[in-house]
Write a structure and sequence with these properties.
The structure holds 2 protein chains of 2 kinds.
Chain A lengths: L22 H22 L5 H9 L3 E3 L4 E5 L5 E3 H14 L3 E4 L5 E3 L7 H9 L17 E2 L14 H11 L14 E4 L13 E7 L5 E7 L11 E8 L3 H15 L10 H8 L1 H14 L9 H10 L13 H9 L1 H10 E3 L5 E6 L10 E3 H14 L3 E4 L5 E7 L3 H10 L14 E2 L14 H10 L3 H7 L4 E4 L13 E8 L2 E8 L11 E2 L9 H15 L6 H8 L1 H11 L7
Parallel strand pairs in A: 6-7, 7-8, 16-17, 17-18
Antiparallel strand pairs in A: 1-2, 2-5, 3-14, 4-5, 4-13, 8-9, 9-10, 11-12, 12-15, 14-15, 18-19, 19-20
Chain B lengths: L1 E4 L2 E3 L3 E3 L11 E5 L3 H6 L5 E6 L5 H4 L8 E6 L6 H12 L4 E6 L6 H7 L3 E4 L1 H7 L1 H8 L16 H7 L3
Parallel strand pairs in B: 3-4, 4-5, 5-6, 6-7, 7-8
Antiparallel strand pairs in B: 1-2, 1-8
Helix pairs in contact in B: 3-4
Classes of the chains: A alpha+beta, B alpha/beta.
Chain lengths: 574, 166
Amino acid sequence: MTAHDPALPPRPNSAPTIYAYDEYDRAFVRERVAEFRGQVERRLAGALTEEEFRPFRLMNGLYLQLHAYMLRVAIPYGSLTSRQMRQLAYIADKWDKGYGHFTTRQNLQYNWPKLVDVPDILEALADVDMHAIQTSGNCIRNVTADHFAGVAADELEDPRPTAEFLRQWSSAHAEFSFLPRKFKIAVSGAEHDRAAIKIHDIGLRIVKNAEGEIGYEVIVGGGLGRTPFVGKLLREFLPRAQLLAYLEAILRVYNRFGRRDNKYKARIKILVHETGLDEIRAQVEAEFAAMDRAPFAYDAQELERVVAAFAPPAYEALPAHSDGFEKAKAENAEFAAFAAVNVAPHKVPGYAIVTVSLKPIGGIPGDATSAQMRALADATDTYGFGELRVSHEQNIILPHVKRDDLFALWRDLSAAGLATANAGLISDIISCPGLDYCSLATARSIPIAQAISERFADLERQRLIGKLGIKISGCINACGHHHVGAIGILGLEKKGVESYQITLGGDPTLSASIGELLGPGVSAEEVPDVIESLVQFYLAERRDGEAFIDTWRRLGHKRFKESARREGEDGSGI
Amino acid sequence: MALVSDGAFIADEWRRLADEESLPGAGKVIVSLGRLPAALEDARLTALGVYVANTTDPKALAPHFSRLALIDIAFPAFTDGRGFSLARLLRREGFVGELRASGRLTPDQYLHAIGGGFDTIEIPDELAAHHGEANWAKARQARSLSYQRGVAGGASILERRRKGVA
């Protein structure tokens, strides 16, 4: 803590459950801030041209958007403490417009910072062991992981120590800071994939081999954008000790041979596709065999240090059943709905995982005001061991809440406007910022999300419809992950008019699939009607317990397509 | 052309030879990869260097390492990072002579270059004037710590943790 935030109270009960910087991490980030401060000064003085400045501002998280700069703050693997959340709120108030936007890569974006202020903002982040390093640019991006890490009932191993190793290894990497294109890595340690590892440049899944040793399944070449690919299996089992060396080998092959002639063909997915998986594997294995692995020598002590940082909090021994929780549900229907939708099972008896939706009906997906950030920090200090997570669905997680405390938590969240009971439902929409903010966008995304959310405002009806992921991108770069939405929406521009393509059947999990096109694009006004007709067809056809995607898989795309065509009569509008 | 070495602009003792120029009778010259076999035959040269594209196969150069005093890797754009990987591979193959990066690199990439094993950076004169010598000197000291070995101060942060030294 420094003079930057006199309002920041010391929090003796701050989470001991996430990695805290040591003196080296802290000094490294400070040096990085000082370096960037110098670059900003040179830019402002004209000693760096915008072209020269660009890659360096990007690798410090600073974009130039439609109206202003945008700063993307790294929240490594989505974990943060209440203290860090309060600092994010403080920054939003002091240097931005009092809010921030949580992204699909577990980061936070400020949409209105001034260039001259950015070094001070980075300094304020460093005060709480945070940074904006490599949240943008053609480098290894902030590593993401399962937002239920450490608490999920289906977990083999907490993926966060692995992700933290990757954060350190990739930070300011001398060799891999000028790659052909951006490079995203995601880690999952559970049976169910909540980290979308098959749509990343590299996806790592923690697995156990026949000998009972822990290692990684390595997936390569997944990605969305204008040419979506589901990742392919590069290595079935990579021993834990070899992880960093093996990733170094993959990155070296990519840095040397990835295409640089066309930015839309520069991701590793294209290299894998054009070269062939077997040939890429041979190249990676050859590099891995030839390289000096000494710098990556397995260090049990270091692993122990990092793992210890993620030690579980001091749970109480509690019965699995909570009378208070059951009673509150019986007495309060609204709370019962919240409990049914936003509360997930925890691996420890008597505890639960709570998803706080940042998708209020008609709101902007992922936005949180500074007051809400503080409310979340207070809530987790009171009920959640001071820890928070950001999910790639753009929601906030309280990972350890006593079942006995759920009702009290819900009341606090309600008071802060944070109790929308729609996690995983049709109005829990993932959306990119779209044309309202982004200079790449070809259409608006947020207003489409808001219109759908308002159309399905009735939460009881949403529960009846059940789990249904809608994902919206405002251009073919697919930041809203529309390819993997059970219903995906892609905003394009046709002759000066926004036109929305709808796809069905996308899935970001281990059963990953890319959505299929429903038909010609529709206007912004028509989107809610088309979704409505698809939902009605699904409700008429579904069997017991079947989610939208399951019905779609069982009936096939054609049936859904036909149903949509009937709605649009000759199909011209759809 | 300006040459950066140890954070300062120094005089370049090497002469880069265009393919149409004939080999001089003496001195340090840098020739293209295509001309390397012929130049290697010529015993009059005191020292020989070669300039290569960043797509060059490091293994193809390895047989000539004992005769080569310098390898100059072209950076066609400062955002093209292939040269950083090639430098590392040449070092791994055993090249111990001068490694030079040439192109429109900025001081902000100095630590990346040092990390890859480069000794010198050759930049156009107008670019050298634009950024100034002081910024190169400063950039060399920009960070004292790195998570990778050999970038800033030698040992990586991991190695420092092991030794328990700051």
